[in-house]
Amino acid sequence: MSQHDPREHARAVVTRRQDEVIALSHSLHAEPELAYEEHKSARKIADLVERSGFDVRRGAYGLDTAFEAVAGSGDLVVAVTAEYDALPGIGHACGHNVNGAAAVTAALALAPLADDLGLTVKLLGTPAEEYGGGKVDLLDRGAFDDVAAAMMVHAAPADGVGMTSLAIGSWKVSYTGRAAHAAAMPHRGINAADAMLVAQVAISAYRQQMIPGGVVHGVVTGGGEAPNVIPAHVSADYDCRAATAEDLAELQSRIRACFEAGALATGAELALEAVGNDYADLRQDLAITGLYRKAVTDLGRRIPDSPDTMRAGSTDMGNVSHVVPTIHPSIGYDCGDTIMHNPEFTRYGTSAGADRAVLDGGLAMAWTAIALATDDDHRAALLTRLADRRNAARVTPAA
Prior knowledge:
The protein has 399 residues and is of the alpha/beta class. It has two domains: 273 residues, 3-Layer(aba) Sandwich (Aminopeptidase); 112 residues, Alpha-Beta Plaits, CATH 3.30.70. The strands form three sheets. The chain has a six-stranded mixed β-sheet with strand order 1-2-4-3-5-11. Strands 8-9-7-10 form a four-stranded antiparallel β-sheet. Strands 6-12 form a two-stranded parallel ribbon. The radius of gyration is 24 Å and the shape is elongated. It comes from Streptomyces tabacisoli.
């Protein structure tokens, strides 16, 4: 193992630890946990890196299922984010067992090199990507304040770089009316189902003029018990998505008006509650993306020429990318036409292709971080951007 070639040093670490990180991926897959409930998953990862010499803080930044694991003391802080939450009913159909294990692989590969490269490696355990937005919580609470670059890989059917995502905001919507006999005294009732119907018609009518890239989708979760009773309560879950955070705000304003129209038309009372954090659109850093592309192709993986080969739904890594130079490439399983968020994708999560994604994704991130640390121009640019960000945060607005 050459001390003079940090890439080969990192590769040797991954080769030596590959059985451990693959076992971690399989263990996460075998015990899927939902958003903000990932106690076992967070503990498994934290235990492994703590045994490997990382300084680990569990329950970091006030989140029970988050952690922060640090190695090195250099001025260039690189955060690798580990996801590990699953989906209701279908487990790791988004591949977060691979995401988390690949992040650990990268951190383990970088840790022995960190001080020599002037790096601080920060492995962040980030809960609740599927629902709630743990990275937004961590961002708001200072986890990324000292971070010059952030990265993760995301499991997918195929490799890709430069993928985009939509900004998203989620709502719980309910109408409360007044029950009445549907035949004898319908005029004494206030029909909550009609209020939802008016809102849905208004949303459908708005689609023709909807902002480009806007998407609205929802499902009625409750309403009405018997056909001869005017429904007094109706509930629904709705998501709004848009190409940018700014477009999302505009779209949400219009969709809110549609729900208000339902209340106005029927006399029902509207309650509209935001669920979790809004996710911003993903803005990947072109320079770091180029370094990752070289790293992953050096490992023999093929990246399609088109930067938008894969469009993500939405991710809380988008919020991080608005503050910190960020990459979020996809790492493929080689699973054909299988789609994510499908039970078939869950079954591929412990395949040989998924195991290779853990190792290649982790090593490619490690090589990317090494390139950032050893290239004077990249390093200086990141540290300058970090200093500018800190200076801007210190500015106190005039009263």
